[in-house]
Amino acid sequence: MPCLLKLMTRASVFLALLLAQAMCAAFFSSDLLMSALGISTAPLSWTMRELMELGALIGLFLGMVFGGILVWRAFRDLSRAEQQLQRASSAFVDLMNTRFGEWNLTSAERDVALLAIKGLNVQEIAQLRNTSEGTVKSQTAQIYRKAEVTGRPQLLSLFIEDLLGVERAAPAASSANMPFSPSFLRVGRK
Question: What CA–CA distance (Å, rounded) separates 8 from 14?
Fold first, then answer.
């Protein structure tokens, strides 16, 4: 709830600033348009006109300052997101290497597993590795056996569950034919 309140406060400040800038722009543009079109209005006293111009100037200046702050924050948030993505990518690679080591995958099986996780099909993997489709099918079968999964979706699911900290359910004979295991219900239990 505090995040929502903070977001609403930021949004209201931003909207107030936007409204003030719109009023400043309307003041200056209406003055110019009326002069260009030759429309005369009742003259304002110089004091009142200077106060309006000063208010418009302050509004435009604040808009520039707050706009700069928003741009700076956007770049900062982008940098943070890129750093988090880099850390997650590194964690995923480390996790894959750890799992591949635990499963005692050969070098060829590691390559095939990585390509399978990337989403390539058997034919594409065979073409990339200059091997037959039968060889790739045999290697993927070995990978799935060593990882104790039945296919590519479950293999990828293992890594996702590890990254999310989800405990994997032990394979049961009755659940072997189930399309998925409800292990997501055991988040954080180890």
Answer: 10
